[in-house]
């Protein structure tokens, strides 16, 4: 199975919890907002990490969907 990761840049407040919890999936860009390091996840461990980061996001701007 594969999952697509997206961050809504208009909502992201740049608190970086996602990048600190799951640096293999999220990084901070030059504007101080989160962005995916990879857009498609095929590894279940990375998926679980990304879900944990999404659930920790204070503004719920991370979306993970089946690809």
From TrEMBL:
<dbReference type="InterPro" id="IPR001080">
    <property type="entry name" value="3Fe4S_ferredoxin"/>
</dbReference>
<comment type="function">
    <text>Ferredoxins are iron-sulfur proteins that transfer electrons in a wide variety of metabolic reactions.</text>
</comment>
<dbReference type="GO" id="GO:0005506">
    <property type="term" value="F:iron ion binding"/>
</dbReference>
<keyword id="KW-0408">Iron</keyword>
<feature type="domain" description="4Fe-4S ferredoxin-type">
    <location>
        <begin position="3"/>
        <end position="31"/>
    </location>
</feature>
<dbReference type="GO" id="GO:0009055">
    <property type="term" value="F:electron transfer activity"/>
</dbReference>
<dbReference type="InterPro" id="IPR017896">
    <property type="entry name" value="4Fe4S_Fe-S-bd"/>
</dbReference>
<keyword id="KW-0249">Electron transport</keyword>
<keyword id="KW-0411">Iron-sulfur</keyword>
<dbReference type="Pfam" id="PF13370">
    <property type="entry name" value="Fer4_13"/>
</dbReference>
<keyword id="KW-0479">Metal-binding</keyword>
<protein>
    <recommendedName>
        <fullName>Ferredoxin</fullName>
    </recommendedName>
</protein>
<dbReference type="GO" id="GO:0051536">
    <property type="term" value="F:iron-sulfur cluster binding"/>
</dbReference>
<keyword id="KW-0813">Transport</keyword>
<dbReference type="InterPro" id="IPR051269">
    <property type="entry name" value="Fe-S_cluster_ET"/>
</dbReference>
């Amino acid at each position: 199975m594969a999952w697509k990761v997206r961050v809504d840049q208009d909502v992201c407040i740049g608190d970086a919890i996602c990048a600190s919890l799951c640096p293999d999936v999220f990084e901070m860009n030059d504007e101080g907002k989160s962005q995916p390091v990879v857009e498609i996840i095929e590894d279940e461990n990375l998926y679980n990490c990304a879900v944990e980061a999404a659930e920790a996001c204070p503004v719920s701007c991370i979306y993970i969907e089946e690809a």
